[in-house]
Sequence to fold (311 residues):
Amino acid sequence: MSSLDFRTTLRKALIAAPTEDDLKRMKDAGFDGVEGRVMPVPQAAQMREAAEKLGMRIHSVLYGWAEFNSPDRADVDRTFTESQAALQTAQAFGAETVLLVPCRIGGQGAGPRRPGTFAGGPPLRIPRPWEFQPTFDPATGHLSKIVYGDNAPYADYIKAHNHATDASREWVTRLIPTAEKTGVVIALENVSNNLWVTPELFRHFVASFRSPWVKAYYDIGNHVRFAPPEQWILTLGDLIAKIHVKDYLLDPADPDGRGRSVNIREGSVRWPVLRQALESISYTGWMTIESNGDIPFEERNRRLDLILAGK
Fold:
């Protein structure tokens, strides 16, 4: 199948605050839009006008980490209020979605904490990426097993995971009325937070809300070490609201199945296969490059054009 045969239409974006200068530079480089950051509503409305004059769209807002599983209620309340504000910013932008990571749990592989960010308590013993084989209750999403064989070493991880699932479901559900009022979808992203690490488990969590206002924001690079991106795409299917474009280079010599983030088209993602998977689920929407180091906008655009063409 050549690029001319694709029925789906994909639009290109970058992430920025943004400013009018950012918008013009992105437009000149060949991008269709931008994913913005949280800002005061009047400022967001001005940026919407600036974008529309250029023929650009501010299609989403990147809020990021919430702390809905924190033992400190002040952290929960603060990030809930910030999430509401992000939805209001998105409405002012004319955006369709807010990217929200509801929480994370700590331990090996969780990455460094940001100041003030709850990472789920003390370090947990967590399976290596290739060891995850979760068994969960379809009624609650609670894990009963996370690996084949002896699960006793991972009892604390299973407990923390189930608590995070319950807390996230409670607080995201509380956000739905604001999402409905603003007309903005809550797009849940799963990053290096040690939660919902298989396609089936993440789909179950997102689908459990049974709401058109809660969908998935799929990040290609975040999940390479757990399953091929095309598997995530085919499993999540119509639950995908938006996509972040990143790459990840697996290290075949690493017994823990790890690797590192790299610029797009320099890693382990099979881009032609991924493009076919997007076609299979009839995904028509935004492809936003999240990070590309110091590569100029024009080069990012060139690489993304190749991906959209199935190359």
